[in-house]
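Two proteins, back to back. First:
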Amino acid sequence: MTGWKYNDKNMGGYNVAKAKNVKTGPGLVFVQGGTFTMGATTEDIMGDWNNIPRRVTVNSFFIDKTEVANVHYREYIHWIESVFSDPQYDAVVQGAKPDTLVWRSELAFNEPYVEYYFRHPSYNFYPVVGVSWKQAHDFSIWRTDRVNEGELINAGYQNKNTIKTEMAGGGQENFNTKAYLMGEYQGVPGKPKKNALKDAQGRPRTHVNFDDGILLPGYRLPTEAEWEYAALGYINQNPQVRKSEKKRGEENNTNRQIYSWQNDGYDNLRATRRGAWQGSFLANFKRGSGDNMGVAGGLNDRSAIPAEVTAFFPNGFGVYNMSGNVSEWVADVYRPLTNQEADDFNPYRGNRFQKVDLSGGEGNLRDSLGRIKMVDENDSTLRMRRNYQRSYAINYLDGDSTSNVSYGYGLTTLVSDQSRVIKGGSWNDRAYWLSPGTRRFLEEDQSSSTVGFRCAMIAPGSPEGNGRKTGNFFPKRRQKR
């Protein structure tokens, strides 16, 4: 736009990385976005009327292929116990551990699961349970930091010995992506073999900026809309996915699915193709009172409790167990009528707009865990904005002062600003809850033996991914004068 060349030290040294696809992070699969009808697909037998069907659009994103398993969460605990080994961090270590007592019941013999489910190798790849929403949120931050730290070490921009320092009780001095980008964490710079990064004077630099395209976006819990869209896997109904600009699928989305797979069975729950698997259940759930897995010699789902995270039938996006196994935390704050109130593009309730806490001054922006300290934006500075006026938007239009609605938590309702949505149904639920449109809630500091989670990540760039262009491109034509 100026005639000045990019990546030229003699013309200002403005460095621009070439546009490229975001690398698929460990454990993730790509979900091509689109429009769909979010909400109920079956009769509302609970009478909640909290999932009114509504047409929305979800942009493309990444989501975990499977639920987070015990072995994955134990890696997190291992890191926490090593980095925060100093006794002053004991509350941090204990606060990260799952609550194994969720298995207890006054009238059931579940004590072995209390002792063994999370730790025994036989349950390595079973979904972790007993994890609260807050713990799942913190796990996502940790996962982001470990993945990005690994990216920098593999590219040579951080010395691999940094890991040894961290794991030897590094405490606050552990890698955090945001702290690194803000210059609050230095670590030990590496010596990349082929360093394409330059400063304004054309000299090689070892500190990576986000616009260099090396670091990945953050892992996080999926929004309810993302989770539900990924669960339905509608891409199976539109098979001619664009392979060139001359061929693309039709906008075909006519068959509402009850569960996370196409309705090709007479009761939607069992495999119908002839062969060894004919009649087998496609998900892990409770068929009826007292029937968690069928009769010996003919077990219907072969799982009395949660099964391995790669068990059962993957859907159109290749995602496992979006119906059954364990219900899953999503990012949203629960409100019965959010579907009617939220935007129709990337709907979500739970925003709390924050900024970096600069009160400590440069060099003191991190908290005791090594993360950048954040504070809510000041509402007095937002009065002139047109798109939002308050930093706390969790109860916007439903429980805030402008809506004239109040929630008497504990008196007239169990819904509060700490209520988070859970989706998908579990090993101990009837088939009704397996439908992606159903929704329930649990307080964000509570946990259950039937609730786990998986992570998601934004997918910057083209909604089709794989190097596709954004928008429709037509042959160039000379304009008539």
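And the second protein:
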Amino acid sequence: MSKFITPTTRPIIAYEHPTFQMHAEIFREHLVRQIKKRPRLSQYDEFIKNVFSRNDQDLKEQCDILLRYFTEAFVHYSAWDYTHAYYPGRPSQQNARTDALEGCSRFLPLLASWLSQQGEPEPILYGLSGKSFDAVEIIKKALLSGTDRNHPGYWGTLGNYDQRVCESADLALTLWLSRNWVWNHFDSRQKKQVVDWFSQVNQCKTVDNNWHLFPLTVQIVLRNLTGDNHVQLDRYQRLKEFYVGNGWFRDGAKGNYDYYNAWGFHYSLFWIDQIDPDFDSCFIQQAVREFNENYRFFFSSHGVPFFGRSVCYRLAAPAPLLSALQYSESGVSVQQAKRIFSNCLKTFISNGALRYGLPTQGLYGADARLTDNYSGPASSLWSLRALIVAFYNGQQTGLWTTSEGKLEVECSDFSFHIESIDAKVQGCQRTQEVTVTFQYEYIDQQSPFSRTLKTQSWLDLAKERITGRANRPKNNLLRQGVTSYSSKMTGFF
């Protein structure tokens, strides 16, 4: 087994144990959502599916179409000057306004990443409908309105263990990526207003896991833009305690080894390294390189052996492979990274992973069994994280122009052990299947009937629809005794 990590006591999270007052607030925001929600934007779903069902489409063209698809939907669902977006889908345990904030915070980095690579004159983006969208104005309005206490779209006062602390990291990344177009054109009053809102994270407690990355990202952005140094290095040192080797982090002292390594840890560390290359680049770059040396074997032509939670973020699985291309040693070739990214998009999108303008709450179509209670309608927009990286460095790394390489399982059989997480990885060229098998049990108490996805009861579904609060069974198969996962993803169906 991996190294021992000193545990801390998990705090009581308010939204996991709501009071009557919180239930009332959740219901009130649920009613507001009924007023603010827009008709489902479905007219481009078949088109986007067809784009990724063909073999003759250029990857850059496909990504440009995705940007237009997501932007069209965001503007359609947005409210209060782009500060929130009420997407259709199953609610989270939190209130509908927080869910709608995710609709803003998890989309805007994509727009900002695209914007960061544009030159003069001020760029205009066209949606699939042909409508023109001013990316600079969208980001500017969102940041100024969301941080304005007197605006109806105000993002509010942050508290301990607040989901908005998580979302503030994506909003801060948006601010940094768009700095030449937005931040540098704010006046001193506007800058102070924005900084004051983000600075709230300095006083907020977080759960002792990957959440340390969120206030760190905000603090490093603010230091880069303002010179004010409030970076909490103790958070970073605690985060490094979760590192177990081979590029893998445990998500907290008693947490999982799962795909949060890809779309959580390494994604956030990449941006920290981009914002401040002097922060800890040696460790960050070495960790992602070592991760990719094994991780690139996970991908097959028809899927990925998913294990852990937040399966709806699946399109972001290639993120560390793309981000590491920025470095001289990446642990993967640009040709193979392109193949993995392109194939991941094609595999999921051609099978219906996009609907109504966003990734579904499932693997392919929507699947409530795979929608965690902390996930709202827009949570799956974290699936954009690989696309965000691609727009940021695709030109300079040669991603757009290189030819596609081959997946490891397309070349030969393989079998190896990842010592740090005690997992065996096997690939069969003939069947194009990759399996990851953990060689220990996450839980002791289990039965043949516990190792399966549970379905939400009709009663719990009715409660969820009436109250606006998620009431779904927990379906992290790692925590239910499943130890072996296949790229054919049979365990999820």
